[in-house]
UniProtKB/TrEMBL annotation:
Keywords recorded for this protein, A-Z: Coiled coil, Intermediate filament
Region feature Disordered, mapped onto this chain: 431-455
Entry's family note: Belongs to the intermediate filament family.
Classification via PANTHER family: GLIAL FIBRILLARY ACIDIC PROTEIN, NOTOCHORD GRANULAR SURFACE
GO molecular function annotations of the record: structural constituent of cytoskeleton
Pfam families in UniProt: Filament
Example GO biological process: intermediate filament organization
PROSITE patterns with a match to the protein in the record: IF_ROD_2 (PS51842)
The protein's name in its UniProt record: Desmin-like
Bias (Polar residues) ranges: 437-447
Coiled-coil annotated residue ranges, if any: 47-102, 138-172, 237-310
Amino acid sequence: MRRAHWQCGNATAGSRDKAHYSHFCERTDRAHDAHTVFSYSPVATKVRSLEQQNKLLETEIEALKNRYLKPTGLRLLYEEQLQELKRLAEQMRIQRDLAIAAKDAMAGQLEMIKVKYEEAVEMRKKAELDIEAFRPDVDAATAARIALAKQLENLEVELEFLRRVHKEEIEELMKQIYAAHATAADAYSLPDLSSAIKQIQLQYDDIAAKNLQEMDSWYKSKFDDLNNKSSKHVDKVRSVREEIVTAKKDIQNKERDLDSLKTKNEALEAQIRETQEKYRKELEELQARIEALQLELKSSKQRTAMLLREYQDLLNVKMALEIEITTYRKLIEGEDSRITSVMQSMQTMSLMSGSISVHSAGAAGVAGIVDKVGGGPDGGAASGLGGGNGGGLLNGITSGVGGPGTTVDYTQEQAVEKTERKTVLIRTVKTEDDTLESNTQEKSYSISGAADDEE
């Protein structure tokens, strides 16, 4: 800085305008001093660190926004899986309804077959009852036929016996008649009776033939009647037996059909039970998956709520940092205004001195200020401008640079500007039940800084 003042002194010693170079030197010194003060002060270091932290927080906030606030594909994936599971459940429900409908249809067919089977059983019982009812008549007819056959045989035997007896009697009578006639003819010479006997024999033969013919016709008529009756009963028995055989065949067919239907029904019931068990297991698996997805969704909501709370906390930290940065910026602006006033006083002093030594002394005084600025938070910097060859036009400059609540005293009176800022922090958090909870905090900050110099 002294080298710069020496160059400015040489330039002033030239033929150019003194005022122009003094203004140029003033601007150069002021810029160099401001840069030096701002570079080496702890406030500037803290401001830089706060700005870096602010940038890092902004980067993290943007990353969190991009990561959690943008719609992700996780919910879409869950929704697609839920839709797929619902579609599978709907298909299973339709298949279950179809199986139940098929079961009901088979149950209806089974009921019809049961009714037909019961009708066949009733017909069989009725036929058996009819057979049992006809059996005494058939037995009686058979017994009567057998009795009549035996009676016919007996009658035939008896008729044959009677014929033989009658023939023997006739022969015996004829022998007796011939013997008597011979004795009579020999004894008394009786008249010839052979013609009369022959007539009597012919009459007896006619009567016997008529009786035999009548008996044959009567027996034949009786036998024909019995044969007709027995044939009728045999036809009835044959028809009943045929009906019984047909009914037995129908019953056997119905029993086979019933057995096949029972087997098919058991197979269908087993298939329905297996299907129900399968669907029950699948529904349990789907329910477990849905519960797992709900738990995962709940944890995601909790994590999202936690991240939102962290994001809100980061926003609050960011706002607090911005407020603090604004406060330090005001302080820096106050320091700039103070340095500007110091430089203006130095310009006035340089104009009044009018010599290179005054400029050198002023530069040395400013260097002393720069060397002393940056003390502790509650300390200050002090330097005396004057003495030397210049004689000390400015008695002293005393300044304090520190933490909050720092005051600045100049030889020239300056107003201290205090700014009060009220900040409202609104925190909004989304809970697990998708409700929004918000709370509001109000904070007031007082910012003090040097006011601008009045021209």
